[in-house]
Amino acid sequence: MRKVLCGAGIFLFLFLGIWSVAVQAAAVPSIQLWINGNKVRPEVPPQLLNSRTLVPVYTVQEGMGMKVDWDAKARKVTVTDGSKKVELTIGSKTARVNGTAKKLDVAPVIIGNRTFLPFRAVGELLGVEVGWEDKTKSVIVNAPVRFQVNGQAVSAKVYRQNDSYFVTARQIAPAIGYTITQQSGKAVFSKGEDSKILSSDTYKIIDNELAVPLSFVEELTGGSGAWNQGKTVYTLNKLITPPPPKKPEVIKVTDIQQTDDIITIRTDKKAQTKDFTMSGPPRIVVDVQNAKLAVVTPSIAGQEKHPAVQEVRYSQFDPETVRVVVVLAGSAKYNLVQKTSGIELQLKDIAYPQPPAPAPPITEPPAPAPPITEPPVMTPGDSTSAQPNPVPSPGPLSLKEKVKVVVDAGHGGKDMGAIGNNAREKDLTLAISQRLADNLRADAKFDAILTRDSELDRQLTERGVKQELSEKVKIANDNGADLFISIHINSSTSAAGKGTETYYYSEKSKEYAATVHKYLVQATGFGDRKMKTANFYVIKNTKMPAILIEIGFISNPTEAREMMKEEFQQRVADAVYAGIKEYVEKN
Ligand SMILES: [Zn+2]
């Protein structure tokens, strides 16, 4: 076939007789020429010369909208494209681009009254994109396209055929986060688990490079590209999987402080907050976003509050929010000021009830918050008022050879009691109960029975059951105990809830309660929440004088930390022992 074509070509240009026989060019009609997306059929088709494909310069210029001048005398073609001027002289390997000499591999030749150049040189000189698709024997020439992905320039080449654009995959794939593998007859685009396959009839190989349809790239990214008006810049903006937004760093709330009318929420880094007010009582709520409560020693516990502030509470409101609640004694407006060390809540326009002129008698401040989890169980249907225990009291304790004390470590088994500040109530009550029992056993006057030890607790926990209150009562009653004490740790919704309290049920337990409470409050130093009566199951149903002590608040970081210390536990055990001993000596 080739021979026949060559012969026809030679015949053709001999017939036209324009150029010398020294040029052995051959017209190759099967070569397609695409200019700016249009398939053009020049009067004189592309030529093959010394293995180079030559294209008629004028066709390219026309197709690209450039201006062409022909100086017959100087045998010179001048192509002007905006500010760019390219001068070609027939037979000369030197071209001039804006006056600067440029060496050519092949001198321009005239074939069929037209100037021909290898298409590569056309691309280089005129600054246009050129490519060769071997499969279809096509020369593709079009205006260069600047490709941008998410604002970043990508050095991909873009070729056009009709209204289809093909972009070189080697550059575009990494720009949109894909890797390419070429297998027989297909190209695979992969991104993690995701892969898309292109068959060979949908992509092109241009200049030995894989070029894929722009529509496919848009499909991969889920974005739609946009052209500028002159179709010289293509911008791809909306990627289907943009890089995941950086998760904001967790903020630690390290302290809550109060200085006069400023409440400071200390954070380890700059924090975002939401704030709002509530009424009844008036409260200012500040939610620190994406924050974890990491208060070790809250400064506010020991700080004087402004008279307009009744209480400042704080808690891990939800896994991502630390909530600070300022309960007002009166009314106030406020500003929230972001500082590097934290957030300042500055009260202003403060109005609160002024104390009367004569100093009022010193009274106990109101308890910060009512306990919520303590004590455990009320007997249904009973009032909380003290009632006489139906069982008659035994003889004087002071005359007894042995006083039998049942020490109940609150909760047990799967019943953990209150939990907070990395502590569990059932562990703290057991530790203190064991120390109290040891103290009593060391005294010849006493015998101590624990309702629970660590081995029983382990067994109950393993079985997934709690220690029933009825079991605790049964131990005391069946053993004919002289005294009963149930040891508990309090809890509150507010971290500020604090103090020590002692419960009793019947009047005959009141003195016992008072004596132990006196020692206990002194030992804890947590503040006196006083003695109270309640119909808790264990103090109501035990037949001997019985009390229930709430040593401190597990929800209060300071108290929880103290209660976890062995020396504190021993001090409390010593105090309760001293109280029991004094009570026994007087009765
Ligand atoms: Zn308890």
Automatic annotation (TrEMBL):
GO terms for molecular function: N-acetylmuramoyl-L-alanine amidase activity. Keywords: Hydrolase. GO terms for cellular component: outer membrane-bounded periplasmic space. GO terms for biological process: peptidoglycan catabolic process. Gene3D superfamilies: 2.60.40.3500, Copper amine oxidase-like, N-terminal domain, Zn-dependent exopeptidases. Pfam families: Amidase_3 (PF01520), AMIN (PF11741), Cu_amine_oxidN1 (PF07833). Residues 352-398 are annotated as: Disordered. Residues 473-581 form the MurNAc-LAA domain. This is MurNAc-LAA domain-containing protein. Residues 353-378 have a biased composition (Pro residues).
